[in-house]
Amino acid sequence: MIRAVTFDFWNTLVAEDHDGTPEEVGTMREAQISGWERVLAGAGSPVDRGRIGEAFDRSWEVFHERWHANEPYGPIEATELMCGTLGVDPSADVRGSLERVFDEVGRAAPLRIAPGAETCLRTLRTGGVRLGIVCDVGMTPSSVLRERLEGFGVLRFFDHWSFSDETGCFKPFAPAFRHALDGLGVEDPAAAAHVGDARRTDIAGALSLGMTAVRYRHFHEAPADTGPEGDLVIDDLTELPAALGLA
Questions:
Q1: Smallest Cα–Cα separation from 132: which of 4, 40, 26?
Q2: Is 59:78 a contact under the CB 8 Å cutoff?
């Protein structure tokens, strides 16, 4: 019997408003570049937008390397790397402003919640299921992601959160999921399910622990060669409670 369900954040609960494009290539990237361009120009160190874009590309390459290696990499590390790439040495105040660009963009970005998410979460909670989030954080910190969930009116449904910038662990590594299970009071992974779009992180990680793995593909169809298939595959979150035998 499933006692707890955890959800991925990006492209599962929430996606960019247009087509679910990931942060490193979507509209959020352009807004981050514009923010850096503005801050550097205001500090008297203008940098060509194209060069800033190249620095962002290099930063995302490093993020993916760290992600696969389960090593922390966020706005602080990205700012240090990009400043070095651009050959600028900003003051502490300017560096702080560059780091805050990621927060500002995350708060203002046009995002959308998955169709049926609130209905799904309410049904699960009404049935006594405990709910959590297991999210690999990119450049938008967990504090902002919580704010966005609050804005969509669904933060209240969750009992526990396991964001990688707080736990220090990415999926598919076991501690990312164990942090969530411990927080939800579930000792046996078989009594929990995880819902996410990515085969490499969400599905492989959940399966390795013995959780029920549910691949959600409304926003993103993960290629078959990127990891294993889930125990269940759904396109609509309102299907989830029944698929898990909870409705």
A1: 4
A2: yes
- The reported pLDDT for the residue numbered 21 is 60
- Please state whether the peptide bond connecting residue 141 to the residue before it is cis, i.e. omega within 30 degrees of 0: no
d(CA 113, CA 143): 17
Question: What are the sequence ranges of the domains in the chain?
Answer: 4-17+111-243, 27-108
Amino acid at 16: E
What are the pLDDT digits (tens) for 56-99? 999 999 999 999 999 999 999 999 999 999 999 999 999 999 99
What angle separates helix 49-69 from helix 27-42, to the nearest 10 degrees? 120
4-17+111-243 classified as CATH 3.30.70.100: no
Give the pairing of strands 111-113 and 14-16: antiparallel
pTM for this prediction: 0.93
Which residues, 6 or more positions from 82, have their beta carbon under 8 angstroms from its beta carbon? 36, 52, 55, 56, 58, 59, 98
